[in-house]
TrEMBL record:
InterPro entries: Cullin_repeat-like_dom_sf (IPR016159), Exo70 (IPR004140), Exo70_C (IPR046364). GO terms for cellular component: exocyst. Belongs to the EXO70 family. This is Exocyst subunit Exo70 family protein. GO terms for molecular function: phosphatidylinositol-4,5-bisphosphate binding. Keywords: Exocytosis, Protein transport, Transport. It comes from the Eukaryota.
Length: 77
């Protein structure tokens, strides 16, 4: 959840507008940097996890993807 906070729209738009010219580009760049750094940190930690049950491992993988991918796509859009 910590890294998903970097993908929120709050604070990115000037005057409530969603046009590309209103996006604070430096804020956007900082958010991507923070997200990437946080993602790598979480990935390093979770890559060491051992989940012997293959079904549980797959459920975890799907659950993480179901939360992360839509948030990342929405932010990228």
């Amino acid at each position: 959840m910590k890294i998903l906070n970097f993908l929120r729209d709050e604070g990115l738009h000037v005057g409530g507008s969603f046009s590309s010219s209103s996006v604070l580009k430096s804020t956007l760049r900082d958010r991507f940097k923070s997200f990437n750094g946080g993602f790598e940190e979480v990935h390093r930690a979770q890559a060491t996890w051992l989940v012997p049950d293959p079904r549980l491992r797959e459920v975890l993988r799907i659950s993480i993807s179901a939360k992360l991918l839509p948030a990342y796509r929405a932010f990228l859009g």
